[in-house]
Structure formats: C-alpha cells, structure tokens
Amino acid sequence: MGAEIEDNGAIQIPPTRAGHIKKRALKNKAVSVSFNEKDLKDYVTGFHKRKKKRRKEAVKQQEEKLRIKRIVARKQRKLEKELALHGGAPPATNESDDYEEDHEESEPIASVNGTTKYDNGDMHVTVTTTEISREDKDGPSEKTQAAVPRLIEADKTHKLSVSKKKSFKKVPKHKSRSKPQNKRDKKKGKTKNKR
C-alpha cells in the first residue's frame, strides 16, 4: 500500500480510516470485570464531596469579585474626592506642586475677584465673584450677602391680563327613563307605578 505514482508525476496517497473499529472486533473482545470496593466507595461518596468542592470554589470566586469591586469603588471615591478638593482639576504629584509654587511666585495670576451688574429692563442682577484659596481654611472673614434680584417698580401693582374663556354649555340633567315592560307583563295587564 505504498504511494502510487501517476503518469503526470504527482504522488497520490490513499485515504486512511484510523478511527473506524469493526463491529466484529468489538463483539469478540473479552469483557473483564474487576470489583474493587475502595474504588466503588470513592466513586459513590465522591458525588457529594465534588459538589461541595465546586460550591466552595464558586463562593471563593464570588468573594474575589466583590473584593475587586470594593477596591475599584474605593479608588473611584478617592479620585472624586480629590477632584472636588482641587476644584475639578486632577490632583498633581508633589514634584509638580513644588514647581507650581515656584511658578506662582514668579508670575502672579490675574485675580478672579470682580463684580458684574446686569440690567434687564425691569430687573437688576449683581454678580460678585471671589477666589477661594486653599490657605483660607476658615473661610472668608467677611460674610457675603446673596444678591437678590429686585424689581425696579416693586411698589406698582402689575395687572395681569386674564383671558376670558367661553364657559362650557350647561347640559340639562336627563330624567331617568322608565323601564320598558316585558311581553309577559303586557299580556297580564300589569301597569307600572307612576310617580
């Protein structure tokens, strides 16, 4: 059963069936039964043990996932807290803080403090902006008053135009109708009580 050579020079290999076992070989095969009490006991009692082992591993995996979730949530909270403390800017490392302090001394930053007034016909709005520094932990010494918009003509009463809608038609109440007589009642000559 070697390789066959065709006239064009190509080698052709015959297909093989390695996985097929003849039925006759299976029938003629001798059956051997061996009984070992220890193997049987391990097999029978092993169901519960294997099930407990699988459950224990699953619980460990769940605990590990929960632990990782808690760690991620803790990191997220810490990052959000730092962002809130630093005014929305990501916190810098210690080296960059030193650089920023030196940089602040060399170039003063323009002040954000200021007052802006807006006039919109019948309302005056005053906006006061102040810079909050980290050194002022106690807060500003002077109390800021909340600007409340007030009307120019507060003493005049405003007349609001009220649209007069057409009122709905009044529908007269319907009187309840008398129940028609049954055929049987008509034949017997019964009359209904009139009010």
TrEMBL record:
Keyword Nucleus recorded:
yes
Q: Where in the cell is it found?
A: Nucleus, Nucleolus
Compositional bias of kind Basic and acidic residues: 132-141
Q: Region Disordered: which residues?
A: 79-195
Spell out the Acidic residues composition-biased ranges.
95-107
**Keyword tRNA processing tagged:** no
Q: Which domain of life is it from?
A: Eukaryota
- Assigned protein family: Belongs to the RRP17 family.
User: What is the designated name of this protein?
Assistant: Ribosomal RNA-processing protein 17
